[in-house]
Backbone:
């Protein structure tokens, strides 16, 4: 089945550690995104990528890093510089960049908790 | 900048009641408008969308009409079910050369039997 797979579903991180969240899509979409969801704040864009080997910062990129070495993969690293990383992280993809009517499809999300 | 404002929740209804969740937006140009639904512990699913003024999006009994004159995209359903209990997000996407969704804060809907 086509879709977006995020892993792990739940992740616990100690203070000072970096963690990487995986996102893989088999929809052959060009664009991929990472969003962060906090209670009562909706979703905020962390990073996005329109093509392989290229990505741009979103609204809240500080303390995060990404890579886009393959079209189907867009991993997110939450670094120790991220002051409040506990949140629900959503990966997404869409078929064509530059068209506002295209649907963005979401994965099931990953819960990150700092302990 | 672009923004989306949704009515605060939770919205609590009995089964078969009529649902309205208000959504208004601020954007330059002519955005596309979306409603996404999130069930507990899951990601977001597209519920419906409209890409130009006066378009009506519809799916699973839900409807929303793109009203440019009032900058609104209110979600409605004539008869809700318990299974509709979820968080609903209104979002817009502007044609800036790259598609970026701007979300409202979400409205939780609770439907009781």
Residues:
């Amino acid at each position: 089945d086509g879709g977006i797979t995020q892993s792990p579903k739940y992740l616990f991180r100690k203070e000072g550690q970096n963690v990487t969240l995986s996102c893989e899509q088999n929809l052959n979409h060009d664009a991929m995104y990472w969003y962060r969801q906090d209670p009562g704040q909706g979703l905020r864009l962390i990073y996005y990528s329109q093509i392989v080997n290229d990505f741009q910062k979103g609204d809240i990129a500080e303390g995060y890093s990404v890579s886009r070495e393959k079209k189907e993969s867009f991993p997110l690293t939450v670094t120790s510089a991220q002051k409040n990383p506990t949140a629900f992280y959503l990966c997404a993809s869409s078929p064509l960049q530059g068209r506002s009517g295209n649907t963005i499809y979401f994965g099931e999300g990953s819960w990150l908790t700092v302990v | 900048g672009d923004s989306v404002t949704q009515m605060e929740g939770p919205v609590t209804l009995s089964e078969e009641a009529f649902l309205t969740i208000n959504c208004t937006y601020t954007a330059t140009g002519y955005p596309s408008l979306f409603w996404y639904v999130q069930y507990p512990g899951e990601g977001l699913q597209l519920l419906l969308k409209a890409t130009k003024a006066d378009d009506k999006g519809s799916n699973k009994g839900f409807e929303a009409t793109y009203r440019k004159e009032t900058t609104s995209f209110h979600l409605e359903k004539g008869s809700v079910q318990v299974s509709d209990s979820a968080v609903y997000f209104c979002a817009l996407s502007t044609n800036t050369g790259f598609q970026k969704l701007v979300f409202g804060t979400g409205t939780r809907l609770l439907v009781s039997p």
User: Anything to note?
Assistant: Chain A touches chain B through 28 residues (CB under 8 Å). The two ends of chain A are 35 Å apart (CA to CA).
